[in-house]
Each structure stands twice: as C-alpha cells, then as structure tokens.
C-alpha cells in the first residue's frame, strides 16, 4: 500500500508526536521489559484506546478499544501474525501459534478436536494426580514464616501436565528438579522479550554481532529445548508402534467420536494433510509450540493467582470456605468437572487474576488487506493494508469506564456475567485465532488451586511482584509468598 494512502486513511486516529521519518524516539528511548507496561498504559490514558505511531516508515496501530478489537478479532481476514513473531521461528518453527494462511488453517482443523470437551474430561484425572504431587512438594516450604518463590514449582507442575495430557508422555519435571528444559524456556523468553523492544536487534546477524554472549545462550537453549521435545516425540512414537503391533488398528482403540479420543501428539503422528503424513519437522514444531504455550502461560496464571490470594486474605478465606463446604476435610478427594462447576467463586478468582495480570500481555497482527471498521465515536474508517496492529490486552484491564477501581483485585466483579461481554477482556484473545487451550487452562487452574488452597493457607510474605515482559508476563522478583498447613476443622 502506498504511504500516502496509509497516511490519508489514519489521519483521524490520535497518537503521540512522531519525529518526521524517525518516530516517537522520546517514547522508545529507555524502553525496558520492566517499564513497558506502565508506558503502554500511560500512552492509552493520554491518547485513548486507539492510537497510531509512525516508526521510520512503519505504521503501528495500538488498540485497547473494545469496538475495534471485536471487529478485527471476529473477522476471518487479517489473521496473519505480526512479523515480530518471526523471532520465535527458530524455536517454535511455524506451529499453530506462529503460522499463517493455509498452513495455519489446515493445522487448526486437525488439532481442534484434540481439545474437545470429551477429551478434557479424561485429562481431569491427570490434572488431579499432578496437582497432588505439586501440593505434596510444597510441604517442605510450609513452615508459616519463610517466603519463597513459588514460580519454579508451578512451572514444573504445568509442564508435567501438558506433557502427560497432550503428548501422552510422562517427563517427571516435578520429580527431576534438575530438568534443563524449564530453565532454557525461562532464559529464552527473557532474552527474546528484551530483543523485541530493540528494533535494531531483530535481525539475526546484527544480534549475533552485537550480543554474541546472548546469542550463544539462545543457541544453547534451542538445542536443549529441541532435544527435549525430540525425546518426547520418539517415546510416544515407540509406544504407539508397540500398541499397533498388539492391535489390528490403533483406530479401533481410539475410535474418534465413539470411544476414546486421541490426544494431540497421537493425532500429529497419524494425521495426513493433503494425503501426506506430517514430517518430523511438522510434528516437532507443534510439539514445541504446545509444550511452551501449554505450560508457560498456565504457570504464570497459577503463580499470579496464588500470589494474589496470599495478599488478599478476605478473598482467600471466602474461596477456602466454598471449597471446604464442598470437600469437607477430605484433602485427597479428586475434583470432577461437575464439582468444579459448583465452585463459582473460584472461576471469578481466576478471571480476576487473568484481568490484572494477563499472561499474554499483547498480541500482534499484520494487516494484509484494507480493513473497514465502524466506530461509535470515530465513525467509519480504514486500517490500511501494511499496518502493524498491536492489541494491548493488559492495558484494557486498567479501563476506568468498564471497571470500578480497576487496579484492585476484586473477584466479585465477575459475578456480574455481563462485565466481560465486550471485547475489553481478552486474556485468551477471541475469534478464529483465539487460544485453543482456553478450556484446558481454566480446568487445569481450577484443579490445581483447589488442591493447594484446601491444604495450605497462603501468607503475604516476601517481596511484591514486579511485572515484566518476557513474551509471557513474568515478575522480576518472582512470585513470593509463605505457606502454612491448614489444620482440620
Ligand atoms: C492461562 C493460560 C493461557 C492463556 C492466558 C493463553 C492465552 C493465549 C492468547 C492470548 C492467545 C492468542 C495469541 C496470539 O494471537 O498471538 C493464545 C493462543 C494459543 N494458545 Fe493459549 N493461553 C493459555 C493456555 C494455553 C494452553 C494450556 C494451551 C495448550 C494446551 C495453549 C495453546 C495455544 C495455542 C496453540 C495458541 C495459538 C492458536 C492459534 O493461533 O490458532 N494456550 N493463547
């Protein structure tokens, strides 16, 4: 698209002063993973929820506007991800999160049934077992006075869960505490987020020349992560082959729609697209994608929720009472989907934590075709092809028009089911490219929280969290709290 057409199309959109041919260097200067959240929210407060920035020759439009979000996200056009996702390609290839066009469409179609309600019902058993291990591991920390960072614990629990459910493989992250994979993911996402904010480092060669140490760390981490996922695939392949030998057809056993549904990795190992089976590389990129997306986001959500509960005793007590009312003193009782449905307040607690600290703080799209929108105050307009669109998920939680005292942790606000009707609440995104693991994540979080809350009281000990951008939201100080074993009532 011509730049003149683009400038003309967006002239009604507000935005900060941009130095001609360069951009808002005064804003970009000193941008760090720590201050990016406040700077983003300040920008929104000053210029509104729909703003434009010219950066060199690039047009970036940021939206925290529910009307624009709804039209963009619900549309079946403009589904391509922002070019910045490219820095993830060496790690995740072009799996579901990072692929576009026909490839994305074909993959989404074969993967969607693997997160069907029926299969989630079967996963709940694994959520229970792994949550019991997680709760047991915390015993040594429950002295009632010493703060500790709970993040590494939640991280290995969610990794065990995604591996055993979607991949059908036990990796024992909670029992083998020396596992290099989680540390490699942590460092990779930290370095990548830092790199995200430095435009000149997006090029691989420039990055390698200017930051050889960080670059070498990334290469080392990539090797660790790929070796790990390779092992997961090979183990499952072996198991499947052994089963094939025993049964005339694996499909007899996993008859889709009637008996058991197939989990993700089994589907990948046996699917065909256009008559061809998936290559090893095709499978690896999806396994890498789901291993990462499936554990890191949920770990962040669980960690922040536990932290918030530790700092809000009233909320914690109310939640515990509900759980206790349902389970009594039977701490070993497993959760079923039905019993979880009764815990309405638990759902509100998770929703509120995801509002305050959305694990995926921003998402980006590349606008490939002129996009016509209608807005109640801006009128009709066009987001021109060539625009880089950023949806600021985290900035919307600070919206004073929607939320009373937006910075407060108040799960009760979600009891009014209408509150999240609009497109201002998007922790899982929305529309055709929404989070495929949304129901999986909500169930997993519920089970894990029930297990922890009925055993321990969470105490407000240790440093406060300091959110930082690490692809997923992280905290610079970790997620510190204390634990005390609950006594029987
Ligand atoms: C609380 C936990 C989670 C949150 C907050 C979350 C959030 C999101 C968001 C915001 C997106 C859109 C990303 C974008 O447009 O770039 C997304 C996509 C995705 N999520 Fe999640 N997610 C969570 C858990 C999970 C889990 C457990 C899985 C896997 C089991 C998963 C797998 C994916 C995949 C594969 C995509 C890409 C979907 C596509 O483009 O078709 N996520 N998630």
Describe this structure in words.
- Helix 8 packs antiparallel against helix 14, helix 14 crosses helix 17 and helix 14 packs across helix 19.
- This protein has 19 helices and 13 strands.
- The N and C termini lie far apart (69 Å).
- The chain has 489 residues and is an alpha+beta fold.
- About 2% of the residues have low confidence.
- The structure holds protoporphyrin IX containing FE.
- Protoporphyrin IX containing FE binds next to helix 8, helix 14 and helix 19.
State the major sheet: 4 strands, mixed
Bound small molecules, which ones?
protoporphyrin IX containing FE
Outline type: globular
- DSSP, total strands: 13
- What are the segments in which pLDDT stays under 50 over at least 5 consecutive residues? 252-259
Please give the alpha-carbon distance between the first and last residues: 69 Å
Total DSSP helices: 19
What is the percent of helical residues? 40-55%
* Mean residue pLDDT: 90
User: Which percent range describes the beta-strand content?
Assistant: 5-15%
Rg is 23 Å
Strand order of the largest sheet: 1-2-9-6
| Category by helix and strand content | alpha+beta
Secondary-structure map with pairings?
Layout: H1 3-9, H2 25-28, H3 36-47, E1 50-55, E2 58-63, H4 66-74, H5 89-92, H6 101-111, H7 117-137, E3 148-149, H8 151-166, H9 180-196, H10 204-210, H11 212-246, H12 250-253, H13 264-270, E4 272-273, E5 276-277, H14 280-311, H15 313-327, H16 337-342, H17 344-356, E6 363-366, E7 371-375, E8 379-383, E9 388-391, H18 393-396, H19 438-455, E10 456-459, E11 467-470, E12 472-475, E13 480-485
Parallel strand pairs: 2-9
Antiparallel strand pairs: 1-2, 3-13, 4-5, 6-9, 7-8, 10-13, 11-12
Helix pairs in contact: 7-8, 7-19, 8-14, 9-11, 10-11, 11-14, 14-17, 14-19
